[in-house]
Amino acid sequence: MKNEAPLLKTTTCSIALLRRQIMDAFEAMLFSLDKLGDALIQDNHLMAWVSDGIDLFNFPEAYTSREKALHILSQYEYLPSQAPREIIVCAGFIGASQHTLDIVCQLNLEKDEFKQAILALKKINPNIYHNELTQTFDSLLAHKRDLSTANQLQKMGLARLHLKQCYRKIPVLSSTPLKISWTWANTRSIKKISVLEAEKLLRKRNILDEGIILQVKKLSHLAQDEPLAIVQDLAPHLRANLVMDANQPKERIMVKGPVPLFFPATANQACPEFKPPKQKTAKDKARVIRNDVRLDPVPFLPAIRAHRYLNIS
Predict the structure, then answer these.
(1) From the CA atom positions of the chain, what is the Rg in Å?
(2) What is the mean pLDDT of residues 38-47?
(3) How many CB atoms lie within 10 A of CB 277?
(4) What is the CATH number of domain 4-175+258-265?
(5) Contact call for residues 301 and 214 (beta carbons, < 8 A)
(6) DSSP string covering 48-88
(7) Nearest alpha carbon to residue 161 among 26, 57, 37
(8) What percent of the chain has pLDDT over 90?
(9) pLDDT score of 313
């Protein structure tokens, strides 16, 4: 019991420090975005293309590609019409000066610092959206931050932050690609776990639920060394397929492309050949299963989406 007070004090100090780190990183991100906006205007003589096909936005016809890109990159909060797990994506490319590329790289570093601070805070206190935390942020902003930062966070509210849109990096290429094409990837996450780990995950659920009880019993009949796999279908995501100059280390590369790509460009330089993405479609569940798939398509433990591996002779 004597150790509880020092431990509580240490945890409270850690949370306060992380809150400050989060606010510092977020403010730095906003500052870099302002700098990026100015740099994009200075680069308006360089090539740029950004797709109009964004469901959640209705850009004015007069919007330039650079204005669209900045609008997308600045969208750190949920829109009123945005579903909880929906992420705004936008295909495009921005030819940029070295000054602009340096700002984007700095912004990516700040995004990573913000993410690491948020994750560290979640580890100490998973409920980062608690009212006390929000009030602390407001207090810090009111006394220590400039008015523009305070107004933006008070307007959105901490709970309105879309963390994945805050975290995601802006792709930066070292040279101008010759060709760009965007495709929608329908992939899934597969995580191998042990029988013991599966049992722990089940027991974290409502252990009095009949379905959970039945699945724990099923698990008890397996050999302890049999691996299982937790399978999760991921939302369709944009990938950019690039053809680079033959002098590059890799002539063909693929990068994540949820936001416009940035690369160096000069005045009067021609745009790369590009193919916009087709309409996003859901994964075809009727598609023939490949012969090399080693997982039983029927979940063995539906509560945690765990599958058994097939015996392959």
Answers:
(1) 24
(2) 96
(3) 18
(4) 3.50.14
(5) no
(6) EEE-S--TT----TT--HHHHHHHHHT--B--TT--TT---
(7) 26
(8) 41
(9) 44
